[in-house]
Amino acid sequence: MIRKTIIEMLALLLLAFCIAMLYHVLSASGITIFKKRPAAQPSATFMMDKGGTAHGG
Amino acid sequence: MAVNPDNAGARIAYRLTVLVRLIVGGIFLISGLAKIADPVRFLLTLREFQLLPSALESFLAVYLPWLEFLLGLCIVVGILHRTASLMIAGLNGAFIIAIVSVMARGIEVDCGCFGLLADALHLPDMADGKAIVRNLVLMAMCLHIFRSEATGWTMERYLGMRRPERP
User: Fold this and answer.
1) Which of B38, B44, B80 would best serve as a mutation to test chain A binding (most A beta carbons within 10 A)?
2) Number of A:B CB contacts under 8 A?
3) Which chain B residues are within 8 Å of A20, Cβ to Cβ?
4) Is the CB of residue B144 less than 8 Å from the CB of residue B17?
5) For the residues B68-93, what does the mean pLDDT come to?
6) Mutation site for B-interface testing, chosen from A3, A4, A8, A32 by largest number of B Cβ within 10 Å
7) What is chain B's mean pLDDT, rounded?
8) Is B110 in a helix, a strand, or coil?
9) ipTM value of the model?
10) What are the helix and strand counts (H, E) for chain B?
């Protein structure tokens, strides 16, 4: 029972490792499942707070 | 474990185990996906904990979300769900140790439990006492799944990996 559980645990750990590495390699080569979110831009309010204007002038 | 068909208590326990499986598995499935979608955020969270070497943090930022996703999937669909629940209980134990560690050092960090979803759904995501209680509850639910041999709606049954046990 204990031996079987340990073998199943190792199998799950290995499977997760394989999937994670496969996804990592695919992501590095430009194939992604999830779209990358664009970097957050500072809002107009934030610019005004920093002493500028909403138009950046 | 043979269950007496006339025992109403056993039937309730049987259905309760299915419900607990769906809750625990669903939580880990979704939280895993949320971290997979934004691994950089999860890496930054791991760095804030200041517990692990940098190389290990990078590895875990890629590996841990997939492990959570896989274990959650195993519990929901019912393949190796007892082993998966034991592993999730172990993961929860590790999370509790990490949270206690940052609390003891007086560092205020996000626990990173739900990744992107924490912002989107305004979920509680601070590494504090509530996170410890949440992890303890999840751990208890996992141990319940591990101890209950009789449960329904498992893929193992349909694949013929285990003999059917129904109250």
Assistant:
1) B80
2) 43
3) 62-63, 65-67
4) yes
5) 93
6) A8
7) 85
8) strand
9) 0.82
10) 7, 0
Q: Which alpha helices (DSSP H) does chain A contain, by range?
A: 2-28, 44-49
Task: Please write the tens of the pLDDT for every residue from B6-35.
Answer: 578 777 878 888 899 999 999 999 999 988
Task: Compute CA distances B21 → B13, B29, B74, whole Å.
Answer: 12, 12, 10
φ, ψ at B89 (rounded to 5°): -60, -40
Task: Give how far B104 is from chain A: nearest CA, Å.
Answer: 30
Question: Which pLDDT tens digit goes with each residue over B117-154?
Answer: 777 777 777 778 888 999 999 999 999 999 887 667 77
Of A15, A24, A33, the CB nearest to B70: A15
Confidence (pLDDT) at A46: 47
Angle between helices B39-49 and B54-77 (to 10 degrees): 120
